Amino acid sequence: MTPLARRRAWNLGLRLTAAVLITLIFMFPIYWLFMISFKTAAEIYSFPPKWYPGSFNLDSYLVLFKDGDATTVGNSLVVASFSTALAMFLGFICAYSLARFSTGGNHLANWIVSQRMIPPIAVVFPIFLLYVWFGLVDTYIGVILLYTAFNLPYVIWMMRGYILDVPPALEESALVDGCTRWQVIWRVVLPMCRAGLAATAIFTFVFAWNDFIFALVLTRTEVATYTVQITHYFGGQSNFWGKISAMSVLGTLPIFVVTAFMQRYFVRGISLGAVKG
Amino acid sequence: MADLRISALHKYYGNVHAVRGVDLEIPAGEFTVLVGPSGCGKSTLLRTIAGLEDADKGTIEIGGAVVNHLPPRSRDIAMVFQNYALYPYMKVFDNIAFGLRSRNTPKNEIEPKVKRAAQMLAIGHLLDRYPRELSGGQLQRVAIGRAVVRSARLYLFDEPLSNLDAQLRDEMRSEIKRLHQELGKTMIYVTHDQIEAMTMADRIVLLRDGLIEQAGAPLDLFERPATRYVAGFLGSPAMNFIDVRLIASDGAMALRLGDGKTLALPQRRTASLAERIDHPVVLGVRPEHISRAAASERAGLARYTAIVDLLQPTGSRTYATFSLGGTRAVAELQAHDVSAVNEQIELSVDMNRAVLIDPATNRVLS
Amino acid sequence: MKSMQQGTFAQRNFKYLLVGPAIFVLLLIGVFPLVYLLMVSFQGITMTETSTDFVGAANYKQLFEDPRLWQALLHTVIITAIALPLELVLGLAMAQLFLNPLPGRAIFIALMVLPVVVSPIVSGATWSLLFNHRFGPINQIIGWLAGKEMVLLWAINPNLVYPAIIAAEIWQWTPFMFLLLLAALGNVDRSQLEAAAIDGASWWRTFSRIVLPAIAPVMTVAILIRGLDLFRLFDIIWAITQGGPGTMTETISVFTYVKGFQQFETSYTAAVALLVVVLLSALVMLLLRRVELAR
Q1: Is C25 an 8 Å CB contact of chain A?
Q2: Does residue A219 sit at the C interface (CB-CB below 8 Å)?
Q3: Interface partners of A (3+ CB pairs, < 8 Å)?
Q4: Chain B contact for A2, CB < 8 A?
Q5: B59: distance to nearest CA of chain A, Å?
Q6: Which residues of chain B approach chain C closer than 8 Å at the C-beta?
Q7: For residue B186, what is the enclosing H or E element?
Q8: Which of A102-111, B103-112, C43-52, C225-234 shows the lowest per-residue confidence on average (mean pLDDT)?
């Protein structure tokens, strides 16, 4: 090997080692969480803590299913799915209007973007009071509406950028061919934005799925999402780590699976979002 | 002594063998142009000389010393990029001074050097501006200024004029040539444009598929091409290539065209062609060597009657397309030699200057 | 398709109909609460007092004199000031590491996405677990290094709560910075870097003079987004310390929640909430203006 090649190999080796180490460190908490969920109670509370479970024990999970707590994941699914669909739909058409017609000019666009900056804690309180008045507390509609509203600015902002990237000539050609504007939106623009839609939808879904503070305030027993459910296992003196970890895994695993499939879009979503912003 | 010597250079890009064994020697102070179509390996070769890519096999010597293992900054080179590669967040002055500052040139020397380089390129008034405020031509001058300010041993140009419009390109071509005369440094210039190659080079190196097809002075390559490829690459409009058959007639040789007509070959050309009689050859003749027949003509000019299919006047000349023995050919005529299409015209083909090519090897027969 | 003089109402106002529903929802959630907050903050509703009479600016006066509130703001600023630069530098270093080709690079990046998609509550719970004084591996590791058993009360010891929270926060969001900056670094014009290499610039010089300015816009966006999120930090703190010990880790969001949903000081909370909104808006406006000026 030439000295140059040797130096290159050395560099590569170092980088690879560093990369592996860093990844291991970042993956460790996830590993621990999953690992704890598979331990028996005795194993969890043993000292010193073992780094691997004796066996794949599903006790913690069974308890959750038996007690009916696992349905909270179902609630999360319902709420996140519907709010994402609604936000994507309303946001997409709104973004189209902004992109192609510059509706409302800069003012509207800026106002919409500013909505994203509102701190949840400031909003959750009056919303709670409003919901009490309308009887929307602990209802699916109430939570879905809120998540939709909170995700709209992001969806509009992102989709506007993606729509602007679609060459107007495509739409004009379709219009000349006889399509109505509505048809153009769904038949021409939508397919061209597929990648952007996927990336935005994932982010929106994950945001609703993982939300805690809104769920905490606006749900009680009917619509409790898995994030709220987890906090029920925090005790004053000791925590039910088995339940906490099992519930966490139940709530996190679906997202991991979705992310694994859509990883490309996720990464693109993060990076493009910033580049466009 | 050669300022740059490349021996048996090979470079792979993944599976693509971009440079397939190039040997090149460039004497000090010469302006060498690496020219060829896209994908021929000229840019790769240049970047390997610069140290931006590693050579896979072979050696590169600059000033007699092997530099294969040296990073670009240690090779005493300067480079001008196609897209200028200027630093957008620095003023023009700082762009030019960047290299000097990186090498810890004393502060009091930097300003005069930058100013002198700027003067040389007529951008002294732009030193305080940012790249985004400049036009394409000005940006290219700044890029050249950045290269020139450092007094390197070897100057590399990677298709610097490709992004400029035609008029600017003409202007910059002379600028760079003038710069070379003024500085006297060794320069290697990459382009795909054969006009740039012809007008600027002391020596042309024509590359094809990773190998040197032919190297030499521009007129050498133009008048004595070694292969069909070289003959067809240089010159605009390109050389006409016609399939013919070498025949003997009346103690002399001639070329029989596809339509049965013949073009006689001048005596002195036939010496080495004896064994090729009755074999097919390719006739290569440049448009400027086909002209309107005059009343009496010198030896070596063959007559041909043709009907003009297409006329392209450029003002001073008119290019006429016609059928030469069944193959489309272009002749460069005077502006008013032909007045209309479908007109018949007597042409004379300068067989002294034409080349004969072996169809099997594509090499030019002497 | 500019203005169509004829056509149905729907056709003429098509573009407005498109934005209508979205704006309606946004108004409901965006504008109404702020108006309501404004109203309520001038009233005197507490846990015990339900009359809706206006009490002038009493709540705001109380706000300025409430040490706990300003403590909360301080805590928020401290956490942001520590976590944000750490995330940035770490994310940048990691982005630089992964920038050039590396075997298995795609797998590494795919794995690094995972912390970002975990719910902050889960993240907080996980780190609570990790930091657990008896059953958590962190104390165990420290014990190995120190040679004796360590029982560090990360969630209770005043000296340890901040590191614990910041650790959880950095773990979750550095990958976000990393991905963002990786994309930005990838977009830097290669030929500029090559020109710098030929010019003889050292690595640091190339990085500071050429790369950093090139990724500055993306970095600014990243800082804005993360800064904002850090300011609103709630979930992770709630999971690990619930704002404790005492009120040591109470950030402004935790403070607001406690006042509103545990102590039911409705009007006061409204005033606080409004203050938070104003503060954040001012900060964002300031930052945006600096970004615009920089351009």
Answers
A1: yes
A2: no
A3: B, C
A4: yes
A5: 12
A6: 50-52, 71-73, 77-79, 81-83, 85-90, 98-99, 102-103, 146, 150
A7: strand B186-191
A8: C43-52
How many domains does chain C divide into? 1
B251's tokens: 């103690």
Question: Chain A contact for C24, CB < 8 A?
Answer: no
The phi, psi pair for B249, rounded to 5°, reads -150, 125
| Percentages (nearest 5) of helix, strand, coil residues in chain B | 30, 35, 35
pLDDT digits (tens, 9 = 90+) for A35-62: 888 888 777 887 777 888 778 888 888 8
Cβ–Cβ of A26/C127 closer than 8 Å?
no
The answer to whether residues B346 and B316 belong to one domain is yes
Report the Cα C88 to chain-centroid distance in Å: 13
pLDDT at B252: 81
pLDDT in tens, C208-234: 999 999 898 888 888 888 888 888 888
Of A157-161, B66-70, B135-139, C59-63, the one with minimum mean pLDDT is C59-63
Using a CB–CB cutoff of 8 Å, tell me whether A186 touches chain C: no
pLDDT of C115 reads 92
Question: Of A223 and C45, which is predicted with more confidence?
Answer: A223
Residues B275 and B136 in one domain: no
The secondary element (H helix, E strand) that includes residue C284 is helix C266-294
Higher pLDDT, A253 or A178: A253
Average predicted confidence (pLDDT) for chain B: 90
CA dist B280 and B274 (Å) reads: 13
Look up the CATH number of the domain holding residue B33: 3.40.50.300
pLDDT(A276) > 70: no
- Domain shared by A47 and A129, yes or no: no
Same domain, B264 and B356: yes
Do residues B216 and B126 both lie within one domain?
Answer: yes
CA atoms within 13 A on the CB side of B160: 32
Q: Flag if C195 and B90 touch (Cβ within 8 Å).
A: no
When CB atoms are compared, the residue of A121, A125, A239 closest to C234 is A121
B73 → closest Cβ in C191, C200, C213: C200
C-alpha span between B292 and B346 (Å, rounded): 6
| Tokens, residue C290 | 């600096």
| CATH code for the domain of C270 | 1.10.3720.10
Q: How many helices (H) and strands (E) does chain C have?
A: 16, 0
DSSP character for B72?
G
- Whether C208 is in a domain gets the answer no
- Residue B296 maps to which CATH number? 2.40.50.140
Residue of C nearest to A14 (CA): C97
**Whether A53 and A188 share a structural domain:** no
pLDDT band at A277 (very low <50, low <70, confident <90, very high): very low
Q: What are phi and psi of A58, to 5 degrees?
A: -105, 20
Q: Answer yes or no: is the ipTM higher than 0.90.
A: no
The model's confidence at residue A275, banded by pLDDT at 50, 70 and 90, is low
Alpha helices in B149-200 (DSSP H): 166-183, 194-200
Quick one: A42 exposed, middle or buried, by C-beta within 10 A (0-12, 13-18, 19+)?
exposed
Interatomic CA distance for residues B62 and A255, integer angstroms:
58
pTM: 0.80
Give the number of domains in chain A.
2
| CATH number, position A128 | 1.10.3720.10
Residue numbers of the domain that contains A48: 3-61
How far is A222 from chain C, CA to nearest CA, in Å? 20
pLDDT tens for each residue of B79-96: 999 888 888 888 999 999
Asked if B219 and B249 sit in the same domain, the reply is: no
Q: How close, in Å, is residue C90 to chain B by CA atoms?
A: 25
**For testing the chain B interface, which of C193, C198, C209, C295 should be mutated: the one with the most B CBs within 10 Å?**
C198
Whether B353 and B216 share a structural domain: no
